[in-house]
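Re-run with default settings, no changes from the original entry. Doing this only to confirm the output is reproducible before filing.
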Amino acid sequence: MKKLLDLISEEIKDAFEAAGYERELGKVTLSNRPDLCEYQCNGAMAAAKKYKKAPIMIANDVAAKLSGSKIYEKAEAVAPGFLNLTLKGDFVGNFIKGMRAEEKYGFEETKNPLEIIIDYGGANIAKPLHVGHLRTAIIGESIKRIARYAGHHVIGDVHLGDWGQPMGLVINELRQRKPELVYFDENYTGEYPTEPPFTIAELEEIYPYASKRSKEDEEYKADAMACTYKLQSGVRGYRALWQHIFNVSVTDLKKNYGNLDVEFDLWNGESTVHDLIPDMVDYMKKGGYAYISEGALVVDVKEDTDTKEVPPCMILKSDGAALYNTTDLATIMMRMEQNKPDRIIYLTDKRQELYFEQVFRCARKTKLVKEETRLQFLGCGTMNGADGKPFKTRDGGVMRLENLIKEVNAEMLEKIKQNRDVSNDEAVQTAQVVGLAALKYGDLSNQASKDYIFDIDRFTSFEGDTGPYILYTIVRIKSILKKYAEKGGDVEAVKNNINAPANESEKQLMLALAKYNSSIEAAYDETAPHKVCAYIYELANAFNHFYHETKILDEGDEQRKAGWIALLALTRDVLETAISLLGFSAPDRM
């Protein structure tokens, strides 16, 4: 189904051509003066110099060709040369009726599906998720859903930190606390226990303790490095103990990501590609890409067009140890062999931009990826407190993600109890649904690369540009449709009965609905979930304006009432589809 702007532009282009001007001048845009018109065309201004004619004369020529248009109710030429355009109500009504009849409301899936891998999440095993993990998880999940909706095959990979020095620290501390564990007996040849010798709570206490001690105790740090070496060298007991750490951590991570309604297709990490590194290094050496510099193995990635220094990409340190660069490049190599992606999207903190620029250039220079493979870095801004600094707990520590979710849900529960007399069980369930919307929408409504202030009072408000406001709008529509059904109406039977708008607020609601296709398309093309947020906020506002001006259920004209019910059902469906792309849902009552 063609987008509304494309349809109405076609007629203006035809009019420019019929008036003797270049048809590409007939581009239509939304009006920047909605008090005067709905759309506008500024082509006459651009044409003036070429045709050596006053813009207003050109605009008048074009307006004359639009006389009797089936699309435009008004096409007025105004000084100094604008075309002010207002659509006919029956044209708008028919367009919306067409949306209802189409799968995905007329949104056209791509005819050339891509294989896309999204690398997001970036959690570390043996460590709890904290608020710093929130943005990549929420934004990556939404980008994944939008890309799938657009018709692409998308794989989400959490890409765990599970193989470096932190593992050595944890294993070393376990060795000191529980030296009797069979994993530390290098002469042991039997089967290792299936049950882990620790809980997730113990693990999460061990890592920060070991990390702090390693900074103060050189001998302790050296022991941890030795443990890391034994793990990566394949010592049986250390590998078995690591597997326990991995399993316990991933079970807990899945639970916490599940609370955010975030799911990954792959739970790969640095360990996944550890055994691929020697062959990759050998390939880079033999290909003449890598060379020794100050004892380290590096690949030059600077380009002639660089305006600032871009350091070489280090593949191995002088002691032969791998780095993040190494595992990221090996991961790219593995993905190209296994999945053959057309596009790989990485979501991390925006401060890692230079790092990923180095990795991407290295991958291209060493031909780990095809020339046409798109490597994309999406840097996320930080979630800040009221002081403008990265969000902390009241005592200044880094807040665990599960505690942030609990805090939002508790605030939401309090507001729901204040506004409605509901059972505690229903209030708790509703608070979890609305709390998730508050948290996700509060994040996603900001451009990914921008920092934002986490304001729990604003995010959980039922008014303004918030998740609860969007959900309240959906629930309000559901309530009207339910009352219609209780009075004997059949929503399903009338859902296609969309008419020409009966009033201006109904027309504006239709015009807001008509932007669905272009908004979702832009969100995919620009990797920008905030565009979906902007769209549904505009749509919710248009509906609420219509609702406050229209006595829907009291309307005596049954055909008109059925048309309004059909319009409400479509608005509900579009809103619920859009919020599912953002990663949350709406309750039936609030």
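Residues 406 and 567 are 37 Å apart (CA to CA). The chain has 21 helices and 13 strands.
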